[in-house]
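Methods, example record. To illustrate the input and output format used throughout this study, we show the complete record for UPF0301 protein ELAC_0845. The sequence lines were provided to the predictor; the line carrying structure tokens was produced by it.
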Amino acid sequence: MENVPYAQIQKGTFLIATPDIEGGIFFRSVVLVCEHNPNGSFGIVINKSLAIDLPEDIINVEELSNPNVQIRAGGPVQTNQMMLLHTSSKIPQQTLEICENVQLGGDLQFLQECIADPSGPSIFLCFGYSGWGAGQLEREFLDGHWFLYPATKKHIFHTPPEKLWQTLLREMGGKYATISMIPEDLSLN
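The corresponding predicted structure is encoded as:
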């Protein structure tokens, strides 16, 4: 039996790129919707790892004791801006809960404490974000550019980023599972 597709864009929803998106940061991307309202939407791409050297005033590598710190390319908008996506509930006044046990926000002091704690929370340092004007994301969804699926802490922080797109489609079942088997390079087909 095929799962009924999830069809409501809201905070805490995954946007899963369809094969119609053929290039750029959104190719096979999974975007976590962080805000969606009549004025527009914003989200963070969570399955694109980013290899960059960070200044020591942000992360002192010698103090990096938390094995759960990862860096992500959050999207094409303001790529020099860093946002924290994490599993800590220690600073509710500084954060926005995106889905159960997943928070967005925090300051530099919070980040420093998290990276120095060997049993600290899972945390993504996300550079850039994805943004849509009023009605734009709805149009993209209706035009078939995105599949929707409820976001979970497990998928965000515990599914390897390079496998997240395929894993979510397989879980959706039916035609989505079939789409998950399309090779990245169609010339290999």
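Annotations derived from this record:
The longest strand covers residues 123-133.
The mean pLDDT is 90.
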